[in-house]
Amino acid sequence: MVTSITSFGRSGLYDWMVQRVTAVVLVAYAVFMIFYLAFGDELTFEQWKGLFDGTAMRIFTLLALLSMAAHAWIGLWSVSTDYIKPTGARFLFQSVCGLLTFIYVVWGIQILWGI
Amino acid sequence: MLVSVYRYNPETDDAPYMQDIHIDIPGGKDIMVLDLLQLLKDKDPSMAYRRSCREGVCGSDGMNMNGKNGLACITPLSAVVEKDKLVLRPLPGLPVVRDLVVDMGQFYKQYEKIKPFLINDTPAPAIERLQSPEERAELDGLYECILCACCSTACPSFWWNPDKFVGPSGLLQAYRFLADSRDTATRERLAELDDPFSVFRCHGIMNCVSVCPKGLNPTKAIGKIRNMLLQQAT
Ligand code: SF4
Ligand code: SF4
Ligand code: FES
């Protein structure tokens, strides 16, 4: 057993599962968006705003946003433990990633509910 | 033909170097890379490599031949030589002791970690612990591993984290005991493996499968361990 306190959920299985589930959510969101933009009518501001006014769309978007955050954290954490060997540099990299992720989540929520 | 061999003697060399040697191969038969090494050693007795059984059983002569790991004793020249040239290097990712000889300490440490022995806390029967032919068949494709380290030293995840990632060879053996009907320590074994490194550092690129000289499939075994962990946790 290798202990690790900076991974997402401490258990390898948990991280692995989260990575898979969030990937599915992200694919679903991406496919939805591509279809909406490609096959919908001419996009107007009202229509775009209307889309994000609905509670369902907000839930879906928030889910995708949180999935993105978790997915990115697990992925970048793995990359950093593979390639950045000095502990200080690795910790710095992980801190920057964590901070950026947090900022994006808060910012995303603000945009989503600010419409 | 031209053979380029990795040479390093820490007592006399400042740094490793590649030595180019032109050598005539006796015609008539397709000799093995190990035979070629013997020819090189006849010329230069300081050349160091390991070998023992010379028939793919002991696992001591794992090395990197033209970029691919394998056992020198069962690899014919015709299978690896390209444009009349052969590059021989030690197994990648492990410290070099001398020339083609690597320090396998890290590799064995991972093997030790998975407790490669049968654990059974029920009283021993008078004669032996029996298995049905089906139960025994579960171990096929697992027990044949000769610990040559060709797979683990071809695995990028093992290169980056040889102290934390068990590696394909160790995990194949871990599954060999998880799959054994006579072993009662399944829970403890799985608990030891459920961290972000031991098993889950495998990204399934299957380098291990492509090099295993015994034709084994560590990636499949790793998948089965993952499924066992999943089953236990959900
Ligand atoms: S799985 Fe194959 S390559 Fe790996 S140590 Fe065993 S025999 Fe060698
Ligand atoms: S499949 Fe897994 S164990 Fe095999 S080489 Fe790839 S990362 Fe390593
Ligand atoms: S010498 Fe034993 S496996 Fe090659």
| Number of beta strands of chain A | 0
| Whole-angstrom Rg of chain B | 20 Å
Number of helices of chain A: 4
Radius of gyration of chain A: 17 Å
Spatial order of strands in the largest sheet of chain B:
2-1-5-3-4
CATH superfamily heading of chain A: Fumarate reductase/succinate dehydrogenase, transmembrane subunit
The shape of chain A, in one word, is elongated
> Under CATH, the topology of the largest domain in chain B is which?
Fumarate Reductase Iron-sulfur Protein, Chain B, domain 2
- Main pleated sheet of chain B: 5 strands, mixed
User: What portion of residues of chain B belong to β-strands?
Assistant: 5-15%
Q: Using the coordinates above, name the CATH class of chain A.
A: Mainly Alpha
Please provide the ordered H/E string of secondary-structure elements of chain A.
HHHH
Task: Kindly report the CATH topology of chain A.
Answer: 3 helical TM bundles of succinate and fumarate reductases
Ligands in the structure?
A: iron/sulfur cluster, FE2/S2 (inorganic) cluster
What distance separates the N and C termini of chain A?
47 Å
Notes on the structure:
Chain B: One of its GO terms (molecular function) is electron transfer activity. Chain B: Residues 135-165 form the 4Fe-4S ferredoxin-type domain. Chain B: Its cofactor is [3Fe-4S] cluster; [2Fe-2S] cluster; [4Fe-4S] cluster. The complex is a heterodimer of chains A (115) and B (234). Chain A has helices at 12-39, 45-53, 55-83, 87-114. Chain A is mainly α and 115 residues long. Chain A has a single domain (12-114), classed as Fumarate reductase/succinate dehydrogenase, transmembrane subunit (3 helical TM bundles of succinate and fumarate reductases), CATH 1.20.1300. In chain A, α1 packs across α3 (55-83) and α3 (55-83) packs antiparallel against α4. Chain A is elongated, with a radius of gyration of 17 Å. The model of chain A has no long low-confidence stretch (mean pLDDT 92). With 234 residues, chain B is α+β, with helices and mostly antiparallel strands. Chain B folds into 2 domains: 2-102, Ubiquitin-like (UB roll); 105-233, Alpha-helical ferredoxin (Fumarate Reductase Iron-sulfur Protein, Chain B, domain 2), CATH 1.10.1060. Chain B is built from 9 helices and 7 strands, in the order ββαββαβββααααααα. In chain B, the strands form 2 sheets. In chain B, strands 2-1-5-3-4 form a 5-stranded mixed beta sheet, covered by helices on one side. A two-stranded antiparallel ribbon of chain B has the order 6-7. In chain B, a hairpin with a 2-residue loop joins β6 (96-98) and β7 (101-102). Chain B is elongated, with a radius of gyration of 20 Å. The A-B interface holds A 1-4, 7, 10-13, 15-17, 78, 81-83 and B 157, 160-161, 164, 191-201, 226, 229-230, 233. The complex binds iron/sulfur cluster (2 copies) and FE2/S2 (inorganic) cluster. One iron/sulfur cluster (SF4) is lined by residues 145-151, 168-169, 172, 212, 214, 216, 218 of chain B.
